[in-house]
Amino acid sequence: MIHQINIIIIYFYITLCVSVEGRSIPVEIISDRNRTFSTLASKYGYHVDELDVTTEDGYILKMYHIPGDRTRPVLLLPGMMQDVEVFIVRGNKSLAITLATSGYDVWALNPRGVGHSRKHVHLNPDLDSKFWDFSFHENGYYDLPAAIDFILERTNERQLSAIGYSQGNTMFYVLGSTRPEYNDKIKVMIALAPICFLQHLKPLVSFLLKMISIIGNLLRSIGVEELLSDNSLLKRLFQMLCTQKGIGYELCTQGILFAVGGNHPDELEPEFLPKIFVNYPSSVSSKNVVHIGQVALRRKFAQFDYGLEQNLALYNARSPPKYNLRKVRMKIAMFLGGNDGISTIGDTELLRDELPNVVDYHLFSGEKLNHLDFVWGRNMDKYLFPLILPVLIKYD
């Protein structure tokens, strides 16, 4: 058994960390590897301002801005292992373009470590492991306040609206509970595929979270703090396999994406898959992976568990404190898919009952909408956006 575990550790270390320069990567991936939110927006006729936002703890975040009505700013936050380009990769049928066409002032933030947010005033992400010492807690406690204050100062407004996808809305629960003064700066937060509690997962997803948490801890113990970097073997393998015609689609959708996020092939056509894997998956800190695993295993939405000794030093308690969701006073509109394998109905209902100000709760029942459809689905302009826009208008 010990031998088998050692093999698993070595395998994951190699796949996550070893450079594969020189391996065969599809030409379209190589030529488009530097694709960004800005280049996609330009392709569809929109100018984008690229701005740097510096957090209180020294991280330099990349913010993308499509100018619109300054009195109606909307902040977009992607999910784990995603760049903000997920909000625009569908072009004219994407959320970012839909908002811009509707006159909104669109702001899209890459949290620390993602895409071009790999900068710090002192730390080098490729040399300093301390750069990667963060999870979704720091995203909510440091990244969001910096972005919100930056936008409000630029627009001269007191409030903005926000749309978070998956872990992108988890950050707002951290923000509202740990820095409650920011609740008053949010008109409404639209939570797409909400992630908070992880107690009603399907067996496969539950097992994967346990394994990922174990592997994440093991990797941290040997000094591996960044996962899925651009030169990691696993990311290159994803890009090679998932862009192959025929077998690539079956392997990466039925074998990976649909197996975890919920099956719904109607929304993810074969010819679109290569566009996803140009930059997906994005880097993630091993600490964030471990933190997500802790939330699932301990059945508590709580701060990071460092172990007894460090918990006593940091929290003055044996266990990390739970996030007080009763303090999250901002208006929240929740949208979830009945076919979502990650943001399940049971967990979302738990979250809805804990939050004090849920103003809308919309469940797409039956086979419609898995976890991925909210950003990648080809018919969201028909199913989802006509429901989002009235919520934004109502609380403008």
UniProtKB/TrEMBL annotation:
A Gene Ontology biological process noted in the UniProt record is: lipid catabolic process
Q: Taxonomically, what lineage is the organism?
A: Eukaryota, Metazoa, Ecdysozoa, Arthropoda, Hexapoda
- Keywords assigned: Glycoprotein, Hydrolase, Lipid degradation, Lipid metabolism, Signal
Into which family does the record put it?
Belongs to the AB hydrolase superfamily. Lipase family.
Q: Which Pfam families match?
A: Abhydrolase_1
Q: Which superkingdom heads the taxonomic lineage of this protein's source? A: Eukaryota
Q: Which InterPro entries match?
A: AB_hydrolase_1, AB_hydrolase_fold, Lipase_euk
Report the source organism: Parnassius mnemosyne (clouded apollo)
Domain AB hydrolase-1 stretches: 73-194
Question: Where in the sequence is the signal peptide annotated?
Answer: 1-22
Query: Which protein are we looking at?
Result: Lipase
Q: Which residues form the active site?
A: S166, D340, H371
